[in-house]
Amino acid sequence: MIPGHGIAYGGDYNPEQWPEEVWHEDVRLMREAGVTMVSVGIFSWALLEPAEGEYDFSRMDRILDLLHENGIAADLATPTAAPPAWFFRAHPEALPVDRDGRGLSYGSRQTFCPSSPAYRTAALRIARAVAERYADHPAVEMWHVHNEYGCHNAECYCEVSAEAFRGWLRAKYENLAALNEAWGTTFWSQWYYDWDEIIPPRATGAVPNPTHQLDWRRFCSDELLSLYKAEREVLRTAAPSIPATTNFMVMYNFDALDYWRWAPELDVVSNDHYLRSTDPESQIDIALSGDLVRSLAGGRPWFLMEHSTGAVNWQPVNRAKTAGELRRNALAHVARGADGIAYFQWRAAKAGAEQWHSAMLPHAGTDSQIWRDVVALGADLKALAEVRGSTGTASVAVVWDWNARWALELPSQPSEQVRYLDQIRSWYEPLWRAGIAVDFVRPDADLSAYRLVLAPSLYLVDEAGAANLTSFAEAGGTLAVGFHSGAVDENSHVRLGGYPGAFRHALGVRTDELFPLLPGESVELSGGGTASLWSERVALAGAEAVTSYTSGPLTGVPAVTRHTHGTGTTWYVATQPDPATLAALLDRIRGEAGVEPVRVTPEGVEAALRRGEDADYLFLINHGDREAEIEVSAEATELLTAKRVLEGSVHVPPGDVVVIREPRSA
Question: Cα–Cα distance between 184 and 203 in angstroms, integer?
């Protein structure tokens, strides 16, 4: 459970960047804005430990005391994401090495090798010192372990990492015969006779072994996870009752860590989410990310540890948010299960690498639109206090797997144009537009709560995952599978006998050859519409053709099929239909599966539902430019205005948000 009462509100607080007289103004303004929790100490290592084993906690003591005196809780960090310069002068071997063999220097953040014994020793030392000093401080209500693991150093290719990788492989395979079999090392004379012959997949002359690369990604994720767990245990020893978290980065451009393995280790699942300036409908990315984080949290509420009030600083062009966007973004995260809303950062920095990153208190000060929006959001979150602890409800699951993502995007695929997240979003988007509640699941998850399971892109799947998905359909569920799924096993070995490999029997189809399409190329489909990106020569093996190609080299060949498997139904989408055609297809699939939207809304109005013990909470977010009217219960209350709904419907102005409390439905 996230500490505190109601929806937590705040951001990263870095008072060390400012003279002490500013701190009192900070807490006064925090109270004005309704801030209830701030993260502190994230990048304070150099100040807390100015020399090895020598500590100066005087500044942090005063900061935490000041926060507590003003009723503001602290999410206190272990400052291990940014080791100080003195550490690297003493331990230059702890600096990371990139894939090309270049040693990197210190001078930014996360410039350490995750496998470095010297780094681990120093990180646990400072974590222990912080934990022992502040375990009983009344301001500290949550531990913030490290910061954004793997953001800049997910992979290190040095000799220390190589030895750690070999140790990880020994634990996994036990002997070289098993490793050689799993990696298929008879290809290109890659057979290993000694463990010491194995190195990380450094830059080489041709395409590296795909299983070697896949195991390397798994190792890198696990290596960082071991650092998190080690710090967390230090914190638990000092303060077993204080929950610990670290901030995930479930965003479009970060895929370094297998968060299914990480999430069970967190007391509170937290996430950072930032928008792409190039995404014209970033609200869809917010929803997708929120649904995935909630799913990682096992359906429980989660904490949005970072997002931005306006522009970020790390894209080629960093756009500001438009009128009302700050509010819509924040409340959209709450709609998807966030019980805490926080920003990077509280006060905009005047110096340093992130000086042009927006903040709750911008460079312009309180006479600014951002500040007025921040204060108004604080009031909104206070009005939504009763939503805390409520959960989502979904009858549709989308299969998400980091191993499948890593494997699909390795070199030498049939088409490098096929990108994992693009495929997931292309299927998620029409569900979002239709107001369909969605969870994300692992391939081996318990699927008994769902009517419909979608696997838009599951290139890699092991036997257990494939059996779980096909058994779901056999037992009466509806399963829809996207192209190039089931093609390889957990070692990235092709499943022989025809595609789509692991799902051939359940789908009632067999493909003997793939026909990926060139960029800009499309083919026509029966019933109207077009398809791009991918096609394949599908033969029916019990399934029926729903849609076929009417142009191109596969004219007359099925493009979409439907099959009865056991007491359920399976669908195979063997191409990439245009958005309207895919939306219509998914409408048909979910309709046959008996899946209904959260609420029928006009185009451009997002609907999401959180379910409490005694009431349901319907979030209506109008992303359009016209007022919308939506039917609600006659006994409903609009929480943000505290007004009763008198006529069985509510009006949502363009760009606005309405949150409705309704009597608990069955």
Answer: 20
